[in-house]
Amino acid sequence: MIDSPHRFASSRLPPVMITGGAGFFGSILAKRLLAEGRDCVVIDLEEPAFSHDRLVAIKGDIRDANLVRRLFDQYRFDTVYHSAAILAHAVKDKNFLWQSNVDGTRNVIEAAAATGVRSLVFISSNCLWAQNLGRPVREDDQPAPVEIYGRSKWEGERIVQEYRDRLNVVIIRCPTIMDEGRLGLLAILFEFISEGRRVWVVGGGNNRYQFVYAQDLASACITAAGSGRSDLFNIGSDNVGSFRDTYQYVIDKADTGARIRSLPRKLTLGAMRLFHVLGISPLGPYQYRMIAEDFVFDTSRIKEQLQWRPTLSNADMLWLAYNYYHQNRQEIEGRTGVSAHRQAAKMGVIRLLKWLS
């Protein structure tokens, strides 16, 4: 809810809106924009873990169309960064996920179009696919999501595209976003490494799966918002190494005695499907399909059109995230009331694998 009107002390530029601004990436983007002198309004189901004199934090729900429109009417944003999304492994109520990711997106874009917003940047996902295409995925490849989160992102893309004639709409499709503080399902991996256990890969771990550094994504979002046109971009790291090599890099730096071991591909994937059906695994259809597959975006378009370049490798990003977890593990284990990426996911049946490790 809006407690009281706020007037920013600086009025050189209109404020920007960040949906999901208390989440993992939303918080990073907000801090970046604040450091660049922008006034920011964030809306989220949770409150940000930081404060700033040029930040207005609204604890609210983008499914509430009236609330969203009141915010847009009050602040007259020139730019919106739409990063709010509910993850499939974070909730049991799939209707809530769909309404948040789809209906909430429609509320945001309708309010933006009605109030003269110049640009909206929509954070989409590589979960639009759940198969190895045998080559890097391009912007013109047809999405084929297999679970509700990917389908909700695909529907969100189609909704914002409807408004390209009224404002600049830029869609950025992201792989896993990495930086200090990234937890969620990765916290399970980090726990195994921190405790010096066996770290399991499927089918040898020679498959490649791309990440993107959160600061690099923030740079792309800000540049895209100022580009003055609508567009669609893939984003991600360069020179993507295998899971085995990336994990080994972190294990060597952590020096905890952890070691990599392989699980048989066919048997493991079949077991993960069964565990998902039984509701005892944190891994959904996307994760258990892609855990042994290659997935890399072709990023040539964003490099050409926005002059964007990644700055960190997958291995460096994973080390940043692991080191944060290792240094803050006790505090992390007690967290409540934070977004899914800022807390550790529940292990479920994976705890059995930990006992064997």
Shape: globular
CATH class term of the largest domain: Alpha Beta
The rounded Rg comes to 20 Å
Count of domains: 2
Distance between the termini: 47 Å
Order of helices and strands: EHEEHEHEHEEHEEHEHEHHHHH
What is the CATH homologous superfamily assignment of the largest domain? NAD(P)-binding Rossmann-like Domain
The biggest sheet amounts to:
7 strands, parallel
CATH architecture annotation of the largest domain: 3-Layer(aba) Sandwich
Q: Strands of the largest sheet, in order across it?
A: 3-2-1-4-5-6-10
- Indicate the proportion of strand residues: 5-15%
**CATH topology of the largest domain, which one?**
Rossmann fold
Helix content: 40-55%
Give an overview of the whole structure.
By secondary structure, the protein is of the alpha/beta class. It folds into two domains: 16-179 and 211-234, Rossmann fold (3-Layer(aba) Sandwich); 186-209 and 241-294 and 313-355, no CATH class. 40% of the residues lie in helices and 15% in strands. It is built from twelve helices and eleven strands. The protein has helices at residues 24-35, 65-75, 94-114, 148-161, 186-194, 214-225, 243-254, 265-278, 285-290, 300-306, 314-333, 350-355; strands spanning 16-19, 40-44, 55-59, 79-82, 119-125, 168-174, 176-178, 198-202, 211-213, 231-234, 259-263. It has a seven-stranded parallel beta sheet with strand order 3-2-1-4-5-6-10, with helices on both faces. Strands 7-9 form a two-stranded parallel ribbon. A two-stranded parallel ribbon has the order 8-11. Strand 1 (16-19), helix 1 (24-35) and strand 2 form a beta-alpha-beta unit. Helix 1 packs across helix 6 (214-225), helix 2 (65-75) runs parallel beside helix 3 (94-114) and helix 7 packs across helix 11 (314-333). It is globular, with a radius of gyration of 20 Å. The model has no long low-confidence stretch (mean pLDDT 92).
